[in-house]
Structures are given as structure tokens and as C-alpha cells.
Amino acid sequence: MMQSVEQLAYVVATVLFIFSLHWMNDPRTARRAVIAGASAMIIAVLTTWIQPGIIHHGWIILAITLGFVVGIPLSRVPLTAVPQRTALSHAFGGAAAGLVGTAKYFLWLSEGPANLTPFRMIAIVAEIILGYLTFTGSLMAAGKLQEVRWIPQRPVTYPFQNVVNIGLLVVAAALGLLLVLHPAEPWSGAVFLAIIALALAFGVLFILPIGGADMPTVISILNSYAGLSAVAMGFVLDNKLLITAGALDGSSGLILSIIMCRAMNRSFANVLFGAFGKVQAKTSSGEQKIYKQETIEGAAQFLEQAQFVVIIPGYGMAVAQAQHRIRELYDQLTKRGITVKFAIHPVAGRMPGHMNVLLAEANIPYSALVEMDEINADMPQCDVALVVGANDVVNPAARYDKSTPIYGMPIIDADRAKMVFAIKRSKNPGFAGIENELYFKENTFMLFGDAKAVIGDLVKQFAGVAVH
Length: 468
Ligand code: NAP
Known about the structure:
Order of helices and strands: HHHHHHHHHHHEHHEHEHEHEEH
Bound molecules: NADP nicotinamide-adenine-dinucleotide phosphate
Helix content: 55-70%
Distance between the termini: 74 Å
Number of helices: 17
Strand content: 5-15%
Radius of gyration: 26 Å
Structural class: alpha/beta
Oligomer: single chain
């Protein structure tokens, strides 16, 4: 009877996990997705908890309490810090899998070598390699994104780096095979610890050559490693829900990384080994490029005369938290009968859906948000393109300049609009570290300043002008 209840609860939890992922596809159902996912997790924990003789209840209560103590402050980070917060969660997941694998190995070893069957040993070896490398790799990724002082942000490369990294993993796998064949020799414990050390070192070295701009993609790949280590843990603990939940986690992480790679027109290998974001050697043509600036009053006048305005938000909008001011500008423009659309690039910002979430927070109607492919067809009819802290995603060099790291990345065709106003604070490049030709085009005018302040000033201009 107890077993049937357990199996039924696990099926319900699995179904909820699947629906949760499905509902995440649309902002309208995303809230429901979170509730379904959290409910599935509660069902999973409670069902495991009530199983007779599994573990001392005090330990579970302690673990849940610790989870709350760490998790609640983590949930309060600003949206711009969500990628590094997510990386921290993966680090915890990896550490949990690694520690469970370690505990199980030494427990079974002490109970007698007969416990250490080849099947269990393969699962344990996979679990500890994936778990521990996810732990240090995710901590490094979080540190890079958080710009922790002693972790280099830019890619760190040295000769034979890939050979060293892959060699390390091959040695760990070879030692793992040795352990599967000889799990209970007097030296087996030392081999086990050596595998852990190699996996921990690999996690650090794996992240070193990867630049900050690629970190969200790598975090997504680490997500899939964490999922796979959970699958291995499910085999070790003989828990079917862990196997299915881990597989969902692993495959969704993989799919997300593939989507992000496609949106940047990059291959997996290029993300992992390409050292993207390395400071580019300056190709000085001797030619001094001139920025043309416009005043707030001038920009407001052009906007007021436009019939069709496209706002292109990027990472700078997130940094400035300008979305609420943008909503006010949207209201002012639409009140005057001007059509306003938002062009959403799939990798604008620092995580998938970054712009959608911020604009939804400011209650901008979903119908005004237009995906890149769709809006590009309308760009030649656009009277004014207002670029708000976007850089790489509107850089025309991506179309033709093979020497740039963003070559081939689809962009929003801001340069095809009749006029462009670009808001940013300085002449610094975007995350790919390259100059943006859009800013020097004949029909582009810069509005230098913090996005929130500049949009706020534009709104004031409109608020002071009577509606016709
Ligand atoms: P971006 O190329 O990083 O440029 C952001 C621009 O915003 C910068 O030029 C910066 O210029 C400006 N800025 C920063 N703070 C600002 C503020 N407070 N007010 C006004 N401007 C501000 O951003 P993007 O065009 O959104 O492109 C995203 C990049 O991240 C791409 O290279 C993409 O491949 C990469 N990426 C994204 C994802 C994802 O999932 N979204 C994943 C992986 C990689 P100033 O410093 O001069 O102000």
C-alpha cells in the first residue's frame, strides 16, 4: 500500500515538473509554472520523508531549515544578478550530488565490498565527477559574473589549455574505470579522493578561458551537468523521481544552451573553447570616428513627429532599471497616436527572456513586444529607433565583419530605421568588446547618459507639451 502511494506521488510530481517546464514557455503561464514546479518539489520531499526507516527525521528538518536560511536571501537578488544566483543554485546541486555519492561509496565500502556492484560504481563515479565539477565550475561562473575581484573576468588562456583540460577529465575517467573494476582494494579510497580532486580542479580550469558574455550559456550547460549528476544520484539511491527530475533538468539545460548558441550564431565548441570576449587588438585605421549628439529637446521633437517608433532595449536598460520610465514614455507616445513597438533580441541582456521580464514588470503590453525576425521586416518603415542600452545586438558589423567575435549573430536592424537615437553612458564597447558602427552612421544620434535619467528627461519634455 505504502509503495503504491509513493509511486503515485512520484508520477504526480513528474507530471507537474513536465507541465511546469511547458508553462514556462509563455509569460502568461509562467506564474502557474512556478507554482506547479514548487508543488512538485513539495510532493517529492514529503513522499521521500514519510518512507519508513529512510533517515533520521531530525536531519531532514535541519537540511530544510538550512535550505530556507540560504534560499530566502538568495531569492531577493536584483534581476540583473539572476544568472549568478542561478549558478550558485547549480553549485549547491552539484555539491549535494557529489557528497551523496561520496557518502554512499564509503558507507557501502564499510558494509562490505559485495555492495559495490559494477552498476552502482559506474553511477557513483558519474555522480561524483559531474557533481564536483559542477560545484567548482558554477562557483567560478557566479564569481566571474558577480565580478569578484580575485577571479579574472576576461578569458584566461595559455598554451595547450584545451589539451590540459581534456587530459584532466580523461585521467579522472580512467581512474573511475579502475575504481569500477577494483572498488574495494586498500588503495581504492585514495583513488576515489583523487577523482574528486581532479573533478574539482577541472571545474575551475574549464571556466577560466570563458569570457563573461558567454557565462549565461555556460551556466545553462552546467545546469545540464547538474541534472545528469542528479540522474546518476537517482541510480545510486534507487530513486525513480530523482532520475526523471534529473533528466528533465539535464535536457532542459542542454536545450536552452543550444537555443542561446543559435541566437548568437555560435557553436558549442566556440562557446566552450573560443575565449570569446578576449580584449581585441585595436585595428587603428588612423581614422577618428565622430559621434553626433542630440539634445533631449531635439530628440523629443523627432519622436513627437514620428508615426512609428521602435524601442530596442538591451543590457543597459537592465543596469539602469529604466523599464518604468520607458513605460511612461510609451504612454506619452501612444497617447499621441504614435505606434510604439519593442524589438526583442533573443540574447539581449544577460539571460534569455531578460528584456521580456523587465518590460512585463513595468506592465508594457505583451502585444507591443515583437521578436527580432518579425520586427526586422518593419525596420525600414520605422521613423525612429530608440536604442536603450543595447549594443552588440544592434551592431551591423555582425553581418559582414568576419574579424569580430559577433560575426554571424543575427541582429536587430536598427541601422535600417530612418533615424536612430542611442542611449548609453560612455563610448565604451558592449560585452563582446568591439566598437559599434551603428553609432557612427549618418542617421544615428547619441543621447549620452544613464538610461533611466535620459528617458526620464524625455518623459518630462512630453509631459510639458500639450497633447494635440
Ligand atoms: P551589451 O552589448 O552588453 O551592451 C550594453 C550597453 O549598455 C553597453 O554598451 C553600455 O554602454 C550600456 N549601458 C550599461 N549600463 C547603462 C546604463 N545605466 N544606462 C545606459 N546604458 C548603459 O548588451 P546587449 O546589446 O543587450 O547584448 C547582450 C550581449 O550579451 C551580447 O553580446 C550577447 O551575445 C551576450 N549574451 C547574452 C545572453 C542572454 O541570454 N541574454 C547570454 C549570453 C551572452 P556604457 O557602458 O557606455 O553605458
